[in-house]
Amino acid sequence: MTADNGRWIRNFVDGKFVEPDEHRGFGKVDPATGAVHARVHEADRPLVDRAVAAARRALDDGWASTAVRERAALLRRAADRIEERFEEFVAAEIADTGKPVTQARELDVARAVSNFRTFADVVAAAGQESFLTDLAGGRQALNYAVRKPLGVVAVIVPWNLPLLLLTWKIAPALACGNAVVVKPSEETPGTATLLAEVLAEVGLPAGVYNVLHGFGADSAGEYVTSHPGIDGVTFTGSSATGSHVMKTVAPRVRPVSFELGGKNAAIVFDDVDIDEALTGLTRSVFSNTGQVCLCTERVYVQRSVFDEIAGGLVERARGLRLGRPLDEATTTGPLISQTHRDKVLRYFELAEQAGAEVLTGGGVPRLGEDLDGGSWIEPTLWTGLTNADRVVREEIFGPVAALVPFDTEAEAIALANDTDYGLAASVWTNDLRRGHRVAQSMDVGMAWVNTWFLRDLRSPFGGAGLSGIGREGGESSLHFYTEPTNVCVQL
Ligand code: NAD
User: Fold this and answer.
1) Are residues 219 and 304 in the same domain?
2) For 422-454, how does the pLDDT look when each residue is reduced to its tens digit (9 = 90+)?
3) 344 and 477: one domain?
4) Per the structure, how many domains does the chain have?
5) Among 107, 385, 431, 446, which residue has the least CB neighbours within 10 Å?
6) Which of these, 17, 7, 63, lies nearest to 175 by C-alpha position?
7) CATH number (domain holding residue 277)
8) Most distant CA atoms of the chain, gap in Å
9) From the alpha carbon of 215, which atom of ligand 1 is closest?
10) How far, in Å, is the centroid of ligand 1 from the Cα of 124?
11) Quick one: DSSP state of residue 374?
12) Residues with CB under 6 A from ligand 1
């Protein structure tokens, strides 16, 4: 069994790869060069029907009632097998995204392994809620909740950290005994397909994990989310698509878990260790070419250290190395596509129209040879913008940030919270009390102090406002992927 059959990246339904239909292929572009390197088989409605039916059958044939220890053991075997095939996953991640090999190894594929191991542990350790209720006359009642799998879960994921975000959902979904129908992003079909091989190899029954390729509206994404056989939707992507998916599932009142966009703030106080803050800010603005939902695009800096922070960040941005993904010295890859680069470049124009000063970047780099066909962009920093400007209000999803000065703590909190999003924030200070105080006042799902994107996978992850609905991670994931039945026994 191979994932791409030489030229094709195929759908995986009911434990088998589906032979592609020549008339339903679309090109998979290498973001680093712009060259098409594979064909992807776009799933049609009948194939979606087959996948949902296979998932239901797998649940009914016993997967839903498998012992927890068997499911946990299977997740551990999956983690081991990804480690054995580590470099194949790294190659598939790079083919999907063009990201640097060091990042694919240290973040994306390593996190896929951790996702499976963490949820094996979490599900094995999970208990049931129970309450002993005192009744009149000295009698009691015992209440306990039995958690059952949600059922057939639609898993819709984006292109920025495709394997990491997919396994973040698949691991707890399978741990809880669900069957899944996965629709990876049309930009990044590779790793989800390779994962199908691994899950089959470690003994996951046919039909529990299905992968369907295609686009969103009027394609596989919408066919899956609107399917009457789906019991819940877990979605990571943009807020606009989240809203659309919510409307799609509304008639059937199915549960949704949404991890959506962000316009995340960093607040830098003047008591900070400047060098440490610059290292953290460089990661938070430029990691994955700014294509992480948690990335910082608004940096509020206390006025007395503004110039020092701005100057230091510019220097570090200029030190980033754009280049070939397989070059270990490369720090920064391309954007995912020309379409996405056009979007980011429109924000460059908007920044100019709003009177921004471009501290560094602001254009398209020339990297030479075939790389000039890729969707590269310069890491870019602006000053002179305010919270009233679209560039500071809307998610850009590129290696960019606007630096804005502030004077007081109260002003910084107000500026950071002045957004429709509510995903993440980071606070940079050496004052312990201030760090806790400001972090707690952020209207976000995750606030970091003197760090960024440091994750304990047992802790809740998600966003407020336009950034999402619900939390995933640890027990929060178990809650989404199960449906409780409360049993009350009068004793
Ligand atoms: P997107 O919303 O365009 O697409 C996400 C997925 O949804 C893709 O698989 C796409 O094919 C599918 N889709 C699109 N339209 C659909 C429809 N009508 N019905 C069903 N499925 C549909 O997002 P993207 O551009 O792939 O990813 C970038 C976005 O994801 C950014 O906004 C980013 O902030 C967000 N994101 C959020 C998190 C988080 O954890 N909060 C993590 C990563 C990315």
Assistant:
1) no
2) 999 999 999 999 999 999 999 999 999 999 999
3) no
4) 2
5) 431
6) 63
7) 3.40.309.10
8) 85
9) 11
10) 31
11) S
12) 156-160, 165, 183, 185-186, 215-217, 221-222, 225, 236-238, 241, 244-245, 259-262, 293, 395, 397, 423, 463, 467-468
